[in-house]
Write the structure tokens for this entry.
Amino acid sequence: MIFFNSTIWRPAATLMGRMKFPAKIALISAAFLLPLVWLLIVYGNSKRDDLEFVAQERAGVRYGVAVFTAMDAAADWRYLARSAALGDGVSGVQDAQNRFFKELDRLKALDQELGKKFETTALVEAVTRASQSAKAASGNAQALFPAMNALTTELAKLQDRVTDGSRLALDPSIETFHLVSATMILTPDLLRDVGELRGLGRTALLNGAMAPAASSRFQGLLAVVEQERLRQADHMAKVREHAPEHARELKQHGESALSTMLATIRSTFPPSADDVQGDDKAYAAMVSGVLKAQTEQVLHNLQVLDDLLAHRQESLRTSIAIAVAVTCVGLLLAVYMLMGFYRSMLGGFKLLRKTLLNISLGDLRTSVNAWGKDEVADLMRELGHMQTALGETVRLVQDASDQVVQASAEIAQGTNDLSGRTEQAAAALEESSAALEQTTSTIQMTADSVSRASDIAQANAATAQQGGQVMSSVVDTMQRIQTSSNKIGEIIGVIDGIAFQTNILALNAAVEAARAGEQGRGFAVVAGEVRSLAQRSAEAAKEIKELIQRSTTEVGVGVDVVRKAGATMQEIVGSAEQVKALLDEVANGAREQSLGVAQIGAAVQELDRNTQANAALVEQTAAAATAQRRVAMRMASTVDEFRLQGHQSAALVEGVDVDAIIDAHRQWKVKLRQAIEERSTVDVATLSRDDCCALGKWIYGDGQRLAQRPNFVELVGRHQHFHSVAGGIGELINQKRMREAEDALAPGTVFAQATADVVSTLSAAKRLGF
């Protein structure tokens, strides 16, 4: 258990928790298939490389056959051309030459196909140049021998390059490796060396002696050929050992002919002999027969090699086919079992998802049928038990919610009535308090006004008393003025008498001056002036006297008036004293009345405050009752989303089956989820309209008679909002943003809230009407 609970599995568990079941199956399958496919690819590539390797080897065998054929043609051409050059009178030189060049053309054509792969083009060109040199040396025995040796050497190099380029030298099978060694690797050098032995031996037989250098070369070649024969025989023996089924197909006559030839050469050309004897033609014919036998043997054995390679190629193809077949059968079986597992699990998950979706939509009417004995079946059985228990709980909650809604509605109605009456009483008290406040204010203003009037009356009395005193002073002053006026009148009378006497005196002076004549003229002028002044003084005194008399008369009248005014002022002072006393009494009464009204106002205000507090408490109680009713309605609307077995629709409301409308409205979520699962397209234009569903058709049909009711208006707005939100989710589905669309349908989203709002309004209408 510690191993399975180790934290090492946490990343994998986290990854699996973020993936859906098909993705999990795909990921696990990919995890298993990845190494399997990798191994299959590696195996296939290996086998393909092996097939390409074998195909390249077979191409090398084909190329080698062409080279050996050209070497055989070159050997014939060499033998006949040298015989003709030595004067043997042989025929067919031109035919042999033509045959070689024909084989060379075939070799060139084959090089066009394989030369780039084997990198033999340069060597083919070298063979061509060597053949042209040999052709040019025809008829000259001395020049022809090295030219033909060069041609044979170039052909051997070409064959060696073909062996390397075709990778025959790297053959992985032991029997074909030894066969390649015996044919493609050793035989070209063997043929070249035997051909050179033929030329050296024939020359010696023709001359009857062999030069030391030629003898040394001859003996060295003889040893090399013997070694090559032994190696060839060893390789062929190993081929027969490891491929006994092909042993009968191999030709070995070339080996026996070579052994006979070597024995004859040793007896004919002993190492220590200077003179040699023998038939040069017979010797040449014998060696030519060995070359022919070796060529026939190698060409035949190359065919056997090609058969072995073809058999290996077929075996590789068969093994590949078997591996692919076994792999495919295993994969098909695994896929079949995996699909069975996938369908079993996915079917269970789909049933589980459907059941859970129905439960999430509140539909508890479906029965949960568990089939099978696996974990999903166990889960379905437990889910069935849970659904049964949930149904019982919902039934109890539905009954309780209906009772709570009814009770909360009655409480809310009662508290609303009490709140209204309390508000009316509070308003009446508030009006009384305001009226008392106004009365108190008026009384206070009256008291203040009376107090100010009393003060003013007192001030008026003081002022009148002061006026009486002033009038007495005025009377005294007027009397003094009258006395002074009388005295001034007397003084003015005296001045008037003096003026009269002065006038008489001036008149007398004028008379005397007139009597005096010229001597008294100046005095007469002065006397005239004095008289004039005396007259004006008399007139002025007269006017002043008249003015003083009038002033004295008016002063007397004023004195009488002032005496009367003084008496009146005394009366005013007495009246002001009386008014002040009366106003003081009124002010005292107003103050006492103001205090009483203020106490009444305070009591009314306290009663108003208490009434306002009671009104606030009643309002809070009404608000709490209303909130309780809303909560009860919300709880009722929540449980209204559940449908139980044996459920009966409620009574029609305004002729509408509200339960049926709620069921139809909840199906939108089912349709959207189905579109997400099936990845189908949604008609967004219809989904966004609020007049296409059953509820919308009723709203814009028979429901219009309720258009003025608040609950109906609220239902219309919420229904429009729901379809607007649903249309947005439909857009997400059409844009293949399935994950976002699925998240938008989850609880707590705008869609869930919009759905709940519509159901809540319908639930309230079912219980309280529109």
Notes: The chain has three domains: 21-330, 376-640, 649-768. The chain has a mean pLDDT of 80. The domain at 649-768 is CATH 1.20.120.30 (Four Helix Bundle (Hemerythrin (Met), subunit A)). The longest helix spans residues 375-516.
